[in-house]
Structures are given as structure tokens and as C-alpha cells.
Amino acid sequence: MVQVVKTLNYTGTTQSIAIPAGTVTIDIHLWGGGGGGGGSDAGGAGGSGAAGHYVLKTDYDVTSSTGQSLVIGVGGGGGGGSSGGGAPGGATGKSLTGYSGGRGGNAGPTPYSGSGGGGGGASVVQINSVDVAIAGGGGGGAGAGQFSNGTA
Questions:
Q1: Report field, pTM of the whole predicted structure over 0.70
Q2: What is the biggest distance separating any 2 CA atoms in the chain, rounded to whole angstroms?
């Protein structure tokens, strides 16, 4: 049996891999995009974003899918929060439509605080628009504030 390994990274677009004739099973290793860190303020740094989830699916039977394609959306990392009164939250980690992370919350209006980091996008593998495996993205970190530096 021939083993083929394909490693895909975030590109911002979907990627596809044809399932070759004679393929019986596949193993899928997925990592979701990490969450962005929270923005800092005068009191210190914001909280760290959480790592994306890891999913392992082994011996997935694809005998009935020969000649079709795996469609993969690799989840992007969430954007970091920013600093300052009313600063916007971190951008979403992109993925397939409906699987992107959430946007981080805005900083408070005055005088100075950090906004929340954006959530990481989920990584998704589909065959014929049917989800085969999904690894969730990590949550964004908390923005710092005068009495809370994103750790509590």
C-alpha cells in the first residue's frame, strides 16, 4: 500500500485534493486556527488567544468517493486586539463560509483599554459538501483594562 501525505496551510481560499482510484481509507489530522491575543492597556498585556482544536479521524472509508475531491478549508488565526479607547476588536479567523471565527469585542470608550482578540477559524474537510471532519478554532484573548489585564 502506498502512503501519500499532503500538508495544507492557511491560504484564505478552499483547497481540493482528488481522491485517486484505488484509495480505500484516509487519515485526517486537523488543527483549527488559533485565537488572537487581546489588546494591551497601560496596566499590561491582554490575555493570550487559545490554540485551535486538534481532530484526528483515522481509517475513513472513501471507496465510494473515488474520483471525487476532498474540499478543505484551513482555518486562519484570529487577529490580535488593539489598544486605546474604542479600539476595534481583532479580526475573525477566516475559513469556509459559516466556519469563520468571531470578531473580538471593542475596547471601552475611555480612557484607555484593550479590545478582545478575534476567534480562530475552524478547519473543515468535506466530500460532496458533506462535512467529514471539523476542528474548531481557538477563542480570542481578553483585552486588558485598568483593573483587569485579561487574565481573570
A1: yes
A2: 64
Confidence of residue 17 (pLDDT cuts 50, 70, 90): very high
Cα→Cα distances 141→50, 103, 108, 111, 138, Å: 7, 11, 16, 21, 9
3-state secondary structure of 56: strand
Q: Cα(122)–Cα(134) distance, rounded to whole angstroms?
A: 7
* Cβ–Cβ < 8 Å for 46, 37: yes
Q: For residue 107, give the C-alpha cell.
A: 475596547
How much is the pLDDT for 147? 66
Residue 85 to residue 82: CA distance in whole angstroms: 10
Give the number of other Cβ atoms within 10 Å of residue 88's Cβ: 18
- Going by C-beta distance under 8 Å and a sequence separation of 6 or more, which residues neighbour residue 149? 41, 43, 44, 45, 46, 47
Give Cα 151 to chain centroid, integer Å.
Answer: 22
Residues 6+ apart with CB under 8 A from 15: 8, 71, 72, 73, 74
Alpha carbon distances (Å) from 68 to 45, 63, 65: 48, 10, 5
The answer to whether 18 and 69 have CB atoms below 8 angstroms apart is: yes
